[in-house]
Structure formats: C-alpha cells, structure tokens
Amino acid sequence: MAEAGEFERKRLGVGVIGAGRIGTHRARLAALHPAVDYLAVADIDSDQAKKLGEATDAQVVTTDPNEVISDKRVNVVVVSTPEHAHAEAVAAAIEAGKSVLVEKPLALTIEDGDRLADLAEERGVDLRIGYSMRFLQRYFVARDEIRRGQIGPVLGGVTRVYNSRTGMMHILRRSPHATPVMDIVTYLVDFVGWCLGDDIEPIEVQACGNGTVFRDAGYDVDDVTLTQVKYSSGAVFSFDICYAMP
Question: What pLDDT score was predicted for residue 1?
Fold first, then answer.
C-alpha cells in the first residue's frame, strides 16, 4: 500500500500504429514516460517500423497493426496512421478493449465518427482525439480566462489559418479524401467548443469554398473555405482557411 502523500503509478503498455512524423513523436514520448514499461510499434513500411523500433527500444516491431492491437501486454493504442486508415484501426482497438488515442480527424465521415464514439461507449473504453491545442499553455490559459468570465460574455470570434500548398499536397498524396477542413478546422472547432463549455452547442452552420490549385492536381478539394457557426449561446464564430499559398 502506498504511504501517505504517495500514489500507486499505473503501469502502461503502449502500442503505436504508424511510424510517420507524428507516430514517431508519440512513440518517443511513450518510451521516455516512467509509467510505460512496454512499447510495441507497427507500420506497414518495414523500414519505417524498424527505424522507430530501434529509436525507442520497442519490445515489439511489426508491419501488422493487428499484432499490436491484440497484444495482451498493450492496454493503450495510439493510432497515427494516414487519415483514411483511422476508422479501421480505432474500431479494432476498441473491440479489443484498449484505450485509444487517435490523431485528428477521428474519421473521414460523420457516420464513421458516430459509429466509433458509440462503440467506445458501448465497450466502456476511453477514446481520445489528439487535439493538442488543449495542452499548449497559451490556449488553456485563454480558455480558463474565458470560462472564468474575465473577458465578459463571448459574442463571437474569428479564426484564420493560411498555409502553403506543399503541406496539403503531402496530406492528399497519403489520403486523397482528406481536406484542409479536416486537417485544421477540426482543431479550431474543438478549441472554440472547449472554451464555450460543454453546455453550448452549434445550432447553425454555413460554409462555402472555392479553388483551382488542388483540383488542377487531381484532387476534389477547395483551396479556400469560409465557415460560419452559430452556437446556442448566441455566439457566432468564423473559421477561415486557405491551404493554397505558394
């Protein structure tokens, strides 16, 4: 039994699926965490999997995600695959009774997102999406100030993100059905909702987009998207993005 002032640290077995930039970051952090005593990594690219396994001293290195998910020593699964592969891996991990951290977006369709959320609730497992803005100081301090009423009633706001086409082309090559909205607006909508509070919900959405850069490259994706959301509190927010900068 732990002495007064101490607590028993839960030991974690972590499985990371996907050895790209973010998956590598997640695996390195897991390997350094004192509560993690078992690490398994998977990537369909054997060279990538081997490289990450060596960098993190992972106990298991494989090209089969299901080997990680079914591993009885793994109780937390991190899904860092390309966007189109999120839903399948998340569903398999939930069915196996594992807690899941998945990079955004949870899925590419509302139907798949709802299905995964319902499945996690049904199985009684934790399902979390990697909305990292919640853990950056400038954002959680801003949220705390808003929730404490330090700036007064929130009437509305504007978010803008302008990015180069190079980054979006990289995303589209790995997941042709991904969009700038899924890449960044999901972050911003989550942050605004987090600031406003769980009892405040979107009640009206209007959006429009246009573009030629990505369509000329063969992808049915808008270069610029403007979205307005009205919330149940009356607040109105604009989410404006352009991922086609030179």
Answer: 42
Selection from 28, 83, 237, 73 nearest residue 146 by Cα: 237
By DSSP bridging, strand 36-42 and strand 60-62 are parallel
Domains contained in the chain, CATH given? 12-130 (3.40.50.720), 141-245 (3.30.360.10)
- Please, what's the b/e burial string for 125-157 (b: 16 or more CB within 10 A of its CB; e: otherwise)? bebebbbebeeeeebeebbeebeeeeeeebeee
Mean pLDDT of the chain: 94
Residue 169 CA to residue 63 CA, distance in Å, equals 26
Report whether 90 contacts 17 (CB < 8 A). no
- pLDDT of amino acid 4: 46
- Write down the pLDDT at residue 51: 97
pTM over 0.90: no
Q: Is 115 exposed, middle or buried (0-12, 13-18, 19+ CB in 10 A)?
A: middle
Catalytic residues: 104
